[in-house]
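User: Can you recover a sequence for this backbone? Please restate the input before giving your answer.

Assistant: Of course. Working from this structure:
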């Protein structure tokens, strides 16, 4: 009798163990393909992202690295727009270049739109004591502008950079070391943009999205590189000799130059090191507004 009970108990245990093994096996077989699929998807996604990065690098490298030294030229159309700026906007606009805004009036337009706009931008290679006054004028006139800073400026002039951001001005990337970008490798150019981008983000909590290449020198490669990094490359359709701090220029003549070259969609490049620019800025803003221009940012 006792042997029969032992045998019966052993049989029940064996059945239970077999059943548990079968259930676990079924669960493992059912779950494994799902887990494998999820792992496969993750690996495929990572491989795909890597392939995109590689493909983007390949596409950029295939473009021309020929240096283009930008200047708006001295030929103007019926709307007072520099012809070179119009031509280059048509040629490089889709690559992320901004030379002149043609969104309201195309290249062949002969009449101005009802609402005209202009962009004010300042290059900040170093501080000469006038940026504060420029910011005062912009604040008082309720105008927003773009200030393109270098790595050295960001490190030395943190208070001014903070003020720009706090007052709603736009801070742009003028690269870390102010190299001529077409003269450097793609990896160095990427580093020039990223070093300053990360520094400003980490120290001021601000992410830049506008790039002005040093000296206005660019190539098809650098345009594509900036675009791949989420940047628009901002050149200009108006500039004059205002960068020589030792020869700031006559105020009346300088103001006349700014006014006589007004055009819709114009991107003005001014240097904040100029005492003349700081002195005439308010008068220029008033004059442009009197002629129907609105100041905007990219």
């Amino acid at each position: 009798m006792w042997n029969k009970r032992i045998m019966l108990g052993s049989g029940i245990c064996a059945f239970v163990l077999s059943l548990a093994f079968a259930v676990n096996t079924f669960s493992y077989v059912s779950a494994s393909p799902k887990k494998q699929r999820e792992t496969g998807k993750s690996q495929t996604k990572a491989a795909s992202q890597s392939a995109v990065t590689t493909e983007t690098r390949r596409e950029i490298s295939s473009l021309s690295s020929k240096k283009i030294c930008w200047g708006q030229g001295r030929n103007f159309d019926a709307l007072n727009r520099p012809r070179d700026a119009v031509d280059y906007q048509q040629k490089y606009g889709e690559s992320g270049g901004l030379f002149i805004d043609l969104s309201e009036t195309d290249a062949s337009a002969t009449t101005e739109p009802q609402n005209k706009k202009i962009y004010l931008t300042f290059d900040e290679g170093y501080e000469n004591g006038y940026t504060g006054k420029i910011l005062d004028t912009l604040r008082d006139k309720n105008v927003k502008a773009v200030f393109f800073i270098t790595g050295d400026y960001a490190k030395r002039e943190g208070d001014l950079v903070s003020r720009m951001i706090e007052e709603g001005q736009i801070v742009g990337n003028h690269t870390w070391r102010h190299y001529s970008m077409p003269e450097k490798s793609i990896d160095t150019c990427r580093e020039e943009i990223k070093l300053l981008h990360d520094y400003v983000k980490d120290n001021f909590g601000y992410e830049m999205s506008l790039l002005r290449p040093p000296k206005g020198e660019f190539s098809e490669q650098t345009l594509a590189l900036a675009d791949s990094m989420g940047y628009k490359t901002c050149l200009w359709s108006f500039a004059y000799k205002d960068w020589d701090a030792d020869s700031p220029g006559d105020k009346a003549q300088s103001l006349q130059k700014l006014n006589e070259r007004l055009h819709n969609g114009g991107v003005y490049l001014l240097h904040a090191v100029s005492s003349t620019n700081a002195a005439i800025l308010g008068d220029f803003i008033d004059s442009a507004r009197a002629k129907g221009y609105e100041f905007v940012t990219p």
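That completes the design. The CA atoms of residues 56 and 228 lie 8 Å apart.
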